Amino acid sequence: MSKVAVVYWSATGNTEAMADAVVEGAKKAGAEVSKLTSAEFGPADVAGFDGIAFGCPAMGAEVLEEDEFQPMWDDVKGKLGGKKVGLFGSYGWGGGEWMNSWADDARMSGVALAADPVMANEAPDDEAVAACEALGAALA
Prior knowledge:
38% of the residues lie in helices and 21% in strands. The protein is an alpha/beta fold. Strands 2-1-3-4-5 form a five-stranded parallel sheet, sandwiched between helices.
């Protein structure tokens, strides 16, 4: 049985709802899943998981949340080689530039994404929930 972590930061609950859908997809695919906030996850935790989904909404000028999530991401991204990794998050403005920048940063750090990143405008609709479940399954 594979072990999957779903690591997220959410202010409004939209990205947490997406995290719940990723958890559900991974569980349906047979994985043992841990749902953790970005404050609960760090470099020492990476080795314990086969797949890791990271979720963060767009903040400010389309960037990752800067106080908790970005520092955690910077600490772990160099340790993700060989892991199945997925990215997801919500936004309320703009066109998703934060996700494109984040995915580029992941790739430049040697991270191979197991699936396309998933974005939702505000609360995830049925299509975004289904994409999050598929992301979870891809990580299982």
